[in-house]
């Protein structure tokens, strides 16, 4: 009989902070610059250059720590982590080992959530329904510490040449590393934890947390042990996981690999492994004789950071309303389905647009519809994140008002929205300039209806013969003749009146 | 209380410092390191009970920069420090992760 195993997982999550400049110098952190355009003597490790700490880095780190229930270390320092590699021009990385800025925190995660399909099935139902049928389990994942450090440069491997090329634009970009306790037991919990962290950090505006682009990176520490055992097994660390899918695969793969070793009487070796997403397997990155010995010591070039209560209070006071609180408030304030609230609050940007547009036009339900249907559709189509939305809440409110006051009909509104989505065009101006206003003059619509009736005797006969559906075809013809600018309701009404005569 | 550096230790230090030493070089390094450690060990003669480890000489803290870009594109000068340059990048011996 085979034994039952439990997987024990802890995470090291690196998050690139959204500062304008690097952690120790005034170089820009903007993405996509020419190689080495954002470098200086400090971030290329030139002798004699001295680092000066970016205050915003400390504030972002504190903000994340406070939002994850950490204690802030009142007196913290930076240390040097020594290692030799061309992406690291100083031969050491400035990090924090002995006195990291945040310690002893936790986040609450939820697992057992519904799949997207189940969610759709429950669309519009209340929160209690979802909780009952989804069996949501809550759990705390401990945060051991959060420390500040600098990122390394990027190595480009020249396929033909004998050299590797180094771009130091990323060298010195500020990172926080969030080290969890080994509290997770499954890939599902890991994903829930990462999503929770990402949500908190995005709400704080401390980072955009994009796994694919590397602004959020997760290293997975994993070991297995027999169920019931209180000792931890030997763990391995897995790197190069840049999507939720690869994290899930890597966890399953590594769990099975370790169980196979134990079942065949072997021993798991503590090592760093690299996940290969194309081959669906991991391989050992560093051999034994390469064992890392970082020889940490306090960095004498940087002064300690003393954090007074007033500073902590200031950062606390500037914290935004987080998602849980927002969800509760929306339930009170707006008459929209819980499902919509869930999706809208999943991005702070989306939630901000929703609130502002609703405030202007006073129609939260319609705003929510535009966000849930057209906005989501276009985001998906263009593979964009909600953060990249360009249209302003004011213009969305304006568009809704144009439909309400019957200046344009719904299908025209969708057309205008697509333009607005790309360029934040003023919808009223666009409608005016492109002559898209709805024909609200009943006389004009009536003239078109009469013409359509005269030109379509067959449909008229069908309708009069009892085929009610024929009216739809006639309405379509009227809309076509009016170049989409008629109100379909009005056309329908007038057609019926004329045909009844 | 003379320090003794073992063969294993000198091998390991060699790996960490990326140095390839021949046998004579290893013996020389062992000897030098032993002497350095003996010298440093003199510090052990001092009574440091109750003395806080000191990492910084000056009683200052909180020296910050504001988050404002102050450096422009200085590639031309920075790349002068590269042993070799290619495509605006530092060319180094081929390195794998």
Largest sheet of chain B, order of strands side by side? 2-3
What is the CATH T-level topology of one domain in chain B?
A: Histone, subunit A
N-to-C series of helices and strands of chain B? HHEHEE
Low-confidence stretches of chain A: 115-133
Which range does the strand content of chain B fall in?
A: 5-15%
What portion of residues of chain B is helical? 25-40%
The profile of the biggest β sheet of chain A is: 9 strands, mixed
Mean pLDDT, all residues of chain A: 89
| Alpha plus pi helix count of chain B | 3
Largest interface: A-B, 55 and 38 residues
DSSP strand count of chain A: 17
- Helix percentage of chain A: 40-55%
* Total domains of chain A: 3
The CATH architecture of one domain in chain B is Orthogonal Bundle
DSSP summary: helix tally of chain A: 17
How much of the residues of chain A is beta strand, in percent? Answer: 15-25%
Largest β-sheet summary of chain B: 2 strands, antiparallel
How would you describe what is shown here?
The complex is a heterodimer of chains A (501) and B (97). By secondary structure, chain A is α+β, with helices and mostly antiparallel strands. Chain A folds into three domains: 5-306, no CATH class; 320-433, no CATH class; 442-500, Arc Repressor Mutant, subunit A (Orthogonal Bundle). Chain A has helices at 55-67, 116-121, 127-134, 187-204, 244-263, 309-317, 323-333, 338-344, 348-361, 364-381, 393-404, 410-423, 427-433, 442-455, 457-464, 470-481, 488-500, and strands spanning 5-16, 53-54, 71-72, 75-76, 79-82, 92-95, 102-111, 137-150, 154-157, 163-167, 174-180, 216-226, 236-241, 272-276, 281-284, 297-298, 305-306. In chain A, the strands form four sheets. A nine-stranded mixed β-sheet of chain A has the order 3-7-8-11-1-12-13-14-15. A three-stranded antiparallel β-sheet of chain A has the order 6-5-16, with no helix packed on it. The model of chain A is unreliable at 115-133 (pLDDT under 50). Chain B has a domain at 7-43: Histone, subunit A (Orthogonal Bundle). The model of chain B has no long low-confidence stretch (mean pLDDT 90). Helix content of chain B is 35%, strand content 9%. Chain B is α+β, with helices and mostly antiparallel strands. Chain B is built from three helices and three strands; from the N terminus they run ααβαββ. The interface between A and B is large, with 55 and 38 residues.
């Amino acid at each position: 009989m085979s034994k039952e195993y439990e997987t024990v997982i802890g995470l090291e999550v690196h998050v690139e902070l959204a500062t304008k400049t690097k952690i120790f110098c005034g170089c820009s952190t903007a993405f996509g610059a020419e190689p080495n355009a954002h470098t200086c003597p400090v971030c290329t490790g030139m002798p004699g250059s001295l680092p000066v700490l970016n205050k915003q880095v400390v504030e972002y780190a504190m903000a994340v720590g406070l939002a994850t229930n950490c204690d802030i270390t009142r007196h913290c320092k930076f240390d040097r982590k020594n290692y030799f590699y061309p992406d690291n021009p100083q031969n050491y990385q400035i990090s924090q080992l002995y006195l990291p800025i945040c310690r002893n925190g936790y986040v609450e995660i939820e697992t057992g959530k519904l799949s997207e399909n189940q969610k759709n099935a429950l669309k519009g139902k209340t929160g209690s329904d979802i909780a009952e049928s989804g069996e949501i389990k809550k759990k705390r994942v401990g945060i051991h510490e959060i420390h500040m450090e600098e990122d390394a440069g990027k190595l480009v491997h020249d396929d033909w040449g004998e050299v590797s090329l180094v771009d130091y634009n990323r060298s010195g970009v500020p990172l926080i590393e969030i080290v969890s306790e080994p509290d997770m037991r499954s890939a599902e919990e890991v994903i829930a934890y990462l999503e929770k962290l990402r949500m908190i950090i995005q709400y704080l505006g401390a980072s955009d947390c994009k796994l694919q682009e590397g602004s959020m990176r997760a290293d997975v520490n994993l070991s297995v042990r027999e169920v019931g055992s209180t000792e931890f097994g030997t763990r391995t660390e897995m790197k190069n996981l840049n999507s939720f899918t690869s994290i899930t695969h890597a966890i399953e793969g590594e769990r099975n690999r370790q169980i196979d070793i134990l079942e065949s009487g072997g021993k798991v070796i503590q090592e760093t492994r690299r996940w290969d997403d194309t081959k669906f397997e991991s391989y050992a990155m560093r051999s034994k004789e390469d064992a890392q010995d970082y020889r940490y010591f306090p960095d004498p070039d940087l002064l300690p950071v003393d954090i007074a209560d007033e500073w902590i209070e200031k950062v606390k006071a500037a914290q935004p309303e987080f998602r849980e609180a927002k969800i509760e408030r929306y339930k009170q304030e707006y008459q929209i389905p819980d499902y919509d609230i869930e999706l809208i609050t999943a991005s702070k940007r989306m939630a901000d647009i929703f609130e502002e547009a609703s405030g202007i036009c006073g129609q939260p339900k319609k705003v929510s519809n535009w966000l849930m249907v057209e906005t989501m559709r276009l985001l998906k189509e263009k593979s964009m994140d909600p953060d990249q939305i360009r249209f302003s809440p004011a213009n969305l409110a304006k568009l809704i008002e144009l439909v309400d006051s019957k200046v344009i009909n719904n299908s025209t509104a969708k057309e205008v929205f697509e333009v607005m989505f790309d360029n934040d065009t003023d919808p009223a101006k666009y409608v005016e300039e492109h002559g898209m206003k709805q024909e609200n003059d009943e006389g004009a619509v009536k003239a078109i209806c009469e013409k359509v009736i005269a030109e379509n005797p067959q449909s008229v006969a069908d309708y009069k013969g009892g085929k009610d559906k024929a009216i739809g075809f006639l309405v379509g013809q009227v809309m076509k003749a009016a170049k989409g600018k008629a109100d379909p309701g009005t056309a329908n009404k007038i057609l019926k009146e004329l045909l009844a005569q | 209380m003379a320090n003794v550096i073992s063969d294993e230790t000198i091998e390991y230090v060699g790996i960490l410092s990326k140095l390839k030493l021949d046998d004579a070089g290893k013996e020389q390094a062992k000897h030098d390191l032993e002497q350095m450690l003996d010298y440093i060990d003199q510090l052990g003669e001092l009574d440091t009970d109750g003395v806080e480890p000191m990492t910084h000489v000056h009683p200052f803290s909180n020296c910050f920069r504001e988050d404002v870009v102050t450096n422009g594109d200085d590639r031309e000068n920075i790349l002068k420090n590269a042993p070799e340059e290619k495509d605006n990048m530092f060319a180094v011996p081929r390195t794998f992760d």
